[in-house]
From TrEMBL:
Organism name: Clostridium cavendishii DSM 21758
Subcellular location: Cell membrane
ABC-2 type transporter transmembrane domain ranges (all copies): 17-356
Membrane topology term: Multi-pass membrane protein
Pfam family, one: ABC2_membrane_3
Protein name as it appears in the record: ABC-2 type transport system permease protein
Transmembrane segments annotated in the record for this chain: 175-196, 217-239, 251-273, 280-304, 337-357
Main localization category: membrane
Length: 370
């Protein structure tokens, strides 16, 4: 394991590189952790009240405790959703109060853009409200009695503040992990430029007593990059959890294991890029372009593209990396991201094959004479 030890020592001795790999990625996480205060970021919910009864007004007034409600017309629903004026629309049907009184409750509809996390929040509130109504409607003899009894039970309604806070924290964490993954990928490319430096200075085997195979050289090299990546990941996760107070899921260990697989993929990507570049400047320039494009397309900047771009996004490792992160942030066990881990391993193998592609200007084959 001489190459592994030598490469690791050289990477750890480079203070500038260590600062770029550990300190710099923390800086953009600070404003992310400080953003999106729950009290200052109300979720806009559109209300279409076709019933206009005391009960529908009560529904709206209770909803105002959890969200910012905006009255809209039925023909404004699509535009309001697609223009992001509101995150969801609730439609209260005509005759709702009467249907509650006779025990045949009409459904309050919730409409959302596909993929919006707010759907489970609104559905939770609607179900909460309806369940309370059903529990008292059978014993009420008039509309006024129904409203009065409901208001008395109002204090027992499950409040959604903690759920809203969880949603906000999850969004912040997802954005933070997007930044982390981008920096982990770029750091792997930065570390791999050490090989280009060796090639330029012709010191591949200066400290080795015997030649080695390309496969062994690649294995020990990527192992050293992966080790540095794990060190970087450990620091970023610890700082995020204990200093920046970012939510990283129910299990630190599960997130660490999953992100370790992502780090392995990033290490292979760095190897693939540097193996086909002729200079350090080329590798860094190409690496910045690639990591930026992958991060933007994969949703690493806090939002996912739509339409055709979303389909293209699913071809990137960033998309599947963050998809797994999102699953774990919902307190899912590690078994829930098995598919994502499998996809990360496939990307790792792909990048390794690209890095080992025997071509005239491939760094390893040309340097090792194979």
């Amino acid at each position: 394991m001489n190459i592994f030890k030598m490469t690791l020592k050289r990477l750890l001795r480079d203070r500038v590189q260590l600062i770029l790999m550990v300190i710099v990625p923390i800086l953009p996480l600070i404003p992310v952790s400080a953003s999106a205060d729950v009290k200052n970021t109300p979720i806009n919910i559109g209300i279409v009240d076709n019933d206009k009864s005391e009960l529908s007004q009560l529904f709206k007034s209770n909803l105002d405790n959890e969200f910012k409600t905006i009255p809209i017309k039925e023909d404004e629903i699509n535009n309001s959703l697609y223009n992001s004026r509101v995150k969801a629309v609730i439609v209260i049907p005509n005759g709702y109060m009467k249907s509650v009184r006779i025990g045949d409750m009409l459904k309050i509809k919730g409409l959302y853009i596909e993929g919006e996390d707010v759907s489970y929040l609104v559905n939770g509130y609607i179900n909460n409200f309806n369940n309370k109504l059903l529990s008292i409607s059978a014993v009420c003899k008039s509309d006024n009695e129904l409203v009065d009894k409901f208001e008395k039970l109002n204090s027992s309604l499950v409040k959604l503040n903690s759920i809203k806070e969880f949603k906000i924290n999850k969004e912040k964490s997802r954005a933070a992990f997007g930044i982390m993954i981008q920096f982990i990928m770029f750091s792997s490319i930065l570390a791999s430029t050490l090989l280009l430096k060796d090639k330029e200075e012709k010191i591949f085997f200066r400290n080795l007593s015997a030649p080695i195979s390309v496969r062994r050289y690649l294995f020990e090299t990527i192992l050293s990059f992966f080790t540095i990546g794990i060190l970087q990941l450990s620091i970023l996760l610890l700082v995020s959890k204990f200093f920046l107070k970012l939510y990283i899921g129910d299990s630190y260990l599960n997130m660490f294991i999953y992100m370790s697989i992502v780090t392995l993929m990033a290490s292979a990507l760095g190897l693939a890029i540097s193996s086909h570049m002729k200079t350090i400047i080329q590798a860094l320039g190409f690496g910045i372009i690639i990591t930026t494009l992958l991060t933007a397309l994969g949703g690493g900047w806090g939002f996912l593209p739509k339409g055709i771009l979303l389909n293209i996004s699913k071809l990137t490792p960033i998309y599947w990396s963050l998809d797994g992160v999102n699953i774990l942030l919902n307190n899912t066990r590690l078994e829930g991201v098995v598919n994502n881990i499998f996809i990360m391993i496939l990307f790792t193998i792909l990048f390794l094959l690209v890095g080992m592609w025997k071509k005239g200007d491939n760094l390893y084959y040309s340097a090792l004479g194979e």
